Amino acid sequence: MSERHAVAVIGCGVFGAVAALRLAERGYRVTVFERNREPLSGASFNNQNRLHLGFHYPRDPATAEQCIRGYQKFRDEFAECVTADFPNGYFIAEEGSAVTAREYLDFCDSVGLRYRLVEPSRYSPPVTGVTLGLRTQEAVIDCRHLRDVLGRRLAGSSATMRFGTEVRAVETRGDTYTVETHEGAAGSFDSVVNCSFADINRLSRQLGHEAPDRQYEYTAVYVVDWDHPPVGVTVMDGPFTTLLPFGRSGRFLLYHVEHSVLDRVTQQVAPARWREPAAGGLLDRAAVERGFRRVLRDATRFVPALRTARLRDVLHGPRVVLANRNDTDARPSMVGSPGPGYLTVFSGKLDHSVWAADEVVRQVDPRAMSRAQPAGQA
Question: Which intervals hold domain FAD dependent oxidoreductase (predicted)?
């Protein structure tokens, strides 16, 4: 690959970082633009850190199969960032679950997921209000360690890193793209890989590409101190709670499908007010504490021992999912090419980043990217 083929990667979350490394390894001249001061400072860090194996998607086997595909690839690439030495259980709620215990077991068997049945009352901690318990091999990602690892790899690569640089616009000029930042023009590029997550549609619209409605959510994941060994508890399948270890910190992440969503809209682009969430009242101390109490109240329905959990911090930020998918809860990862030389990476699963980066490389290759025939759109 000629060094003259220049690629702009917008966003240095895990998807942008891994894609940039793959492209740089293959001789592309890569420039990464990230509005924050270090990699993995946005949605890649402010999430549940779950290393998805597929158990979360009984109503959409296609998403589950993507998770199975991504799980081992990520573990092979970032083994030192994965924590798996804790019991991790999935449970079906007695009331309000979208799937029954039998349907859930049939789903697990149909996609080849391995599990061991557990008696919820004998799990540690005991789980109540559920009809089924499974011990799984799912793990979590230590995102602090992952950020350090990717930072070192990027620093040792040929990629040019532009941290603290917000991309305001992308324009086409003939066969090249011009990237405009808050500091002005930042150069011309043969290809652009848009990994900006919540900002994908805003930049795509500037280029005249379709920007379908997405469901944007501003979420809070609560970091708690709790006097218990590392353990995972996920209650399925509906508006329930997840408890997971916060990497190797000794703390836990507590999340609720509904109560952790501080704001939600379905539209083409993310709300501008989310850029300053504190100013909008989303994250004042009183609001954070109210949200935590709601989440904890629901969590103790299933894990009574969590009554002693204490709020330590909150991870917050926007996330994006497909709109109007509540019936199936489909959460696919997609690498698309809305136009020649322009790629978008749409995903909320950190562990899909390795196979997605390989797909980015395949599509950026000029031999696979016909400028006369776009490759499809995410």
Answer: 7-320
Domains of the chain: total: 2
The helix or strand, by DSSP H or E, that contains position 152, with its residue range, turns out to be helix 143-155
Is 0.90 topped by the overall pTM? Answer: yes
Same domain, 56 and 144: yes
Query: What distance in Å separates the CA atoms of residue 236 and residue 351, rounded to the nearest whole number?
Result: 21
How do residues 214-260 score in pLDDT, each as one tens digit?
999 999 999 999 999 999 999 999 999 999 999 999 999 999 999 99
Task: Taking the CA atoms of 120, 121, 127 and 128 in sequence, report the sign of the dihedral they define.
Answer: positive
Least Cα distance to 47 among 253, 266, 245, 271 occurs for: 253
- Return the structure tokens found at 13: 């979350």
Quick one: 126 and 252 in the same domain?
yes
Is there a single domain that holds both residue 144 and residue 164?
yes
Q: Is the peptide bond before 237 cis (omega within 30 degrees of 0)?
A: yes
Contacts of residue 337, defined as CB under 8 A and 6 or more positions apart, other chains included, come to 343, 344, 363, 369, 374, 375, 376, 377
- Say how far apart CA 304 and CA 324 lie, in whole Å: 34
End of a domain among 303, 322, 341? Answer: 322
Domain check: are 51 and 61 in the same one?
yes
Q: Is there a single domain that holds both residue 262 and residue 167? A: no
Instruction: Report the Cα 212 to chain-centroid distance in Å.
Output: 19
Q: For residue range 260-291, what is the model confidence (pLDDT) as tens digits?
A: 999 999 999 999 888 877 756 788 888 899 99
What is the three-class DSSP state of 3? coil
Residues 6+ apart with CB under 8 A from 364: 7, 23, 28, 191, 193, 341, 343
Dist. CA 143–CA 44, nearest whole Å: 8
Full residue range of the structural domain in which residue 25 is found: 1-83+140-212+330-378
List the CATH number of the domain containing 304: 3.30.9.10
Are residues 30 and 153 located together in one domain of the fold? yes
Answer yes or no: are the C-beta atoms of 93 and 65 closer than 8 Å. Answer: no
